[in-house]
Amino acid sequence: MIKEEKNTEPKSKDKKQTPIIEIKNLHKTFGEDNQILKGVNLTVNKGEDLVILGRSGSGKSVTIKCIVGLIEPDQGEIIVFDENVLDLSKDELNKMRVRIGFLFQSGALYDSMSVRENLAFTLRAHKRDLSEDEVENEVIEALESVGLGDAIDKMPSELSGGMRKRIGLARTLILKPEIILYDEPTTGLDTITSREISELILDIKHKQKTSSIIITHDMACAKMTADRIMVLKDGVIHAEGTYEELEKDEDEWVRSFFE
């Protein structure tokens, strides 16, 4: 378990590993004085699921959106696959994004497209040399990996919230990403469906050897999926450890997440 002061770098539990993601001194302010990130430092090792906790508005989602260039930070470094994201050209960034899956809170499906069309559209945008048969096979494989092969011809409006999350995840998986960023993957779902999504996150990690950052308020999801947890407070990493370590933390504010 590690406690962090502002603008200090969290200690790594495994010095021998080269992080697949490393964020150094990340700052982001919106408007004139809404400073969200004040020097975030974090690492994700290959094959690790890192959960980030924090109150609403603490900058959790901002942090992962900076990783894929959806938000541009004011200061800091974001090293992914040994490259600084902030130094990449637009083409280089797009190539990196293919290796990084991002699951949005809503699932972000195109409402005017069927499930098949949603997944095929993503695949064709990045792998234009595939034949129609190859696209179809990839779509079926991705849907079966999330247990929804029979939903291929449905429209998003016909799907439950949990199904939309699964289809969104299938669309992410179809590009075979090495890293997946989950933004509140169980928000708005009932307890049973939330558990199913958490189990799916673990299954994907083990079968596809992905590394992940999981943003969540769902402590059951955090307990099930996290190899390590970081807690954001006042724009910096305030505490780090396993679920069991942070559950017994001396800091009452940290413990409040686990009550």
From TrEMBL:
Keywords: ATP-binding, Nucleotide-binding, Transport. Residues 21-259 form the ABC transporter domain. GO terms for molecular function: ATP binding; ATP hydrolysis activity. The keyword Electron transport does not apply. The keyword GTP-binding does not apply. Coiled coil: none annotated. Pfam families: ABC_tran (PF00005). Gene3D superfamilies: P-loop containing nucleotide triphosphate hydrolases (3.40.50.300). This is ABC transporter related.
